[in-house]
Structure formats: structure tokens, C-alpha cells
Design brief:
It contains 11 helices and 5 strands. It is of the alpha+beta class. Helices cover 41% and strands 11% of the residues. A hairpin with a 2-residue loop joins β1 and β2. The strands form 2 sheets. A 3-stranded antiparallel beta sheet has the order 3-5-4. The protein has a two-stranded antiparallel sheet with strand order 1-2. α2 crosses α4 and α6 packs across α8.
């Protein structure tokens, strides 16, 4: 069995793809690797991980330097290469958001704007996950409805986590890779520090607990996901 055949696995790179490119001068080899990496990321609908990128470049290729060089080349373009959800993805620069909105109107599927109550619950799940619906309701002092949880699940921003050790073993909720992607985060460690948000006057835990900034958690969510666990 040849070395190429031995390396070939389902969903792996084609066995005949020359990743080393030893026949090329170093500069041309680097340019070819840059082109391959950018093409793979451009063609993907989700963030591309390092392991996927490694399939199309040589073993001695420094992927971080390749990414840096692509970013430099894109500096004057309306889109950029960002680190998000554990991978890399092309995105239009934020400065063009109004232009894109003017061209296409309302956001497309999967980009529905969240209501205030949905955003607040999502924020709490992000910071305190894994957390149950009951714990969310206790945190806000009002019931967080299954319908509201269903809205966040329908947008794939949250998913079921491990069962809680509480009586009845209710499901907990956690954020998803889609959450990281939509909010431009590489990991949850990039979430703003909760205390810093309070210090900046952008968030008040006391108001949250008092329900002062929570309009309604139990109504206006008619499109319930009937498969919600509790």
C-alpha cells in the first residue's frame, strides 16, 4: 500500500492532493498555500478549524503565519478573516452593516433580532451555563416560559446541557457554536466580564433580580417549540 493510500480516509483530503509542493520555490509554495487556505475558508458555511486547514497545506506550514498574511492582504477589502467559534471565517466588516442592510433589507433566516427578554435570558445562559429554566426563573423573579426557551433553541443559540442534580433532574441549557459564531466570539472566555458590565452601568444585577428591566417572560412567544425539555 502506498503512503498516499495509507493516509486516505473518508472525509479526509483526496489522496492525490500534493500538500508539500516540494517542486515549487518557497515563495510560490507559500502563495499556493495561502490561496488554498483562503479558498477553503471562503467556501465553508461554518468556521473552518485548524485540522481542516491542515489537510491542504504541507506538514511544515505555519498555519498561523498563513492566516496573518491573508489578513494583511484583506486589509483594504470590505471583508476580513476572523477567529470565531474555534475556527476562521470570512465576514464583511461591521462598518458596512448599514450598506448590507440597505441592499438586502431584513436579516435572513437564522438572524432574527431578539426581543429584550430573549436577549436577557440568552445572556444569563451564556454567563451561568449550564442552568435550568427553573434557575433562570428564580434569577429573574418571574417565570421564564418554555416558549421563550423555544425561540432561542429554534435559532440554535442554545441547546440542552447535562441534567441537573436537582430533584427531578431537569435539563440544563448551554450556548452553542452558533451562539459563538453569531456574536463573533472565538470562545466563551471572550464574553465581557460581568462585573465590568455592572461597573460601566450597562447591566445591573440588582435590577435583574428585581425584574425592573424584564418586560415579560411568559407571553408574546406564540411559536412554541413543543419539544422543550424541563
Amino acid at each position: 500500500m502506498s503512503e498516499a493510500s495509507a493516509r486516505h480516509k473518508p472525509n479526509d483530503q483526496p489522496a492525490l492532493l500534493d500538500t508539500e509542493l516540494d517542486h515549487l520555490p518557497p515563495e510560490l509554495r507559500w502563495r499556493e498555500w495561502m490561496g488554498r487556505v483562503e479558498a477553503v475558508i471562503f467556501a465553508a458555511s461554518e468556521p473552518v478549524t485548524r485540522s481542516v486547514v491542515a489537510r491542504v497545506v504541507g506538514r511544515n506550514c505555519n498555519i498561523d503565519l498563513i492566516i496573518d498574511d491573508i489578513r494583511i492582504e484583506l486589509a483594504g477589502r470590505p471583508y476580513e478573516l476572523v477567529s470565531v467559534a474555534g475556527g476562521w471565517q470570512h465576514r464583511t466588516k461591521k462598518v458596512f452593516a448599514d450598506v448590507i442592510h440597505a441592499a438586502f433589507g431584513t436579516p435572513g433566516k437564522g438572524a432574527k433580532e431578539l426581543s429584550q427578554s430573549e436577549a436577557l435570558v440568552l445572556m444569563c445562559i451564556a454567563y451561568f451555563q449550564p442552568i435550568t429554566r427553573g434557575e433562570l426563573s428564580s434569577f429573574f423573579g418571574k417565570e421564564v416560559s418554555r416558549d421563550l426557551i423555544g425561540v432561542l433553541r429554534a435559532q440554535e443559540l442554545i441547546a440542552s446541557g447535562p441534567r441537573s442534580p436537582q430533584p427531578g433532574a431537569p435539563y440544563t441549557y448551554v450556548t452553542t457554536k452558533t451562539f459563538l459564531t453569531q456574536f463573533g466570539l472565538e470562545t466563551l472566555r471572550q464574553l465581557p466580564d460581568f462585573e465590568a458590565l455592572e461597573d460601566a452601568g450597562l447591566l445591573s444585577k440588582e435590577k435583574l433580580l428585581a425584574g425592573d428591566i424584564v418586560p415579560d417572560f411568559s407571553s408574546n412567544h406564540q411559536n412554541a417549540d413543543l419539544g422543550i425539555e424541563d
